[in-house]
Design brief:
Layout lengths: L10 E11 L4 E11 L2 E5 L9 E6 L4 E9 L3 E6 L1
Length: 81
């Protein structure tokens, strides 16, 4: 069993999100599976083309800078700045 390393608990959500990078010329749609003030779990079709830093727009919030902390084939854990 892994110890919880997050500084804040995340709440389960299912929201649409938009990942933007390359000065806005590239984007991916994603699903936000859980979220806190400083992090989120994103679900995508594939993660290999995703850069390590990008902008994330979640449906009702403002755009925030996101840094990848870990990734699998279709999930990404990010820290939000």
């Amino acid at each position: 069993v892994f110890a919880e390393r997050r500084s804040r608990l995340r709440r389960r959500v299912l929201k649409g999100g938009l990942i933007s990078f390359n000065n806005g010329y590239s984007s991916f749609e994603c699903a936000v599976r859980n979220q806190s003030d400083n992090g989120a779990l994103l679900s995508l079709a594939e993660t290999f083309a995703l850069p390590s830093v990008f902008w994330l727009l979640v449906s009702e919030n403002r755009q925030r800078k996101a840094t990848v902390r870990w990734r699998t084939l279709n999930l990404v854990g990010v820290e939000l700045v």
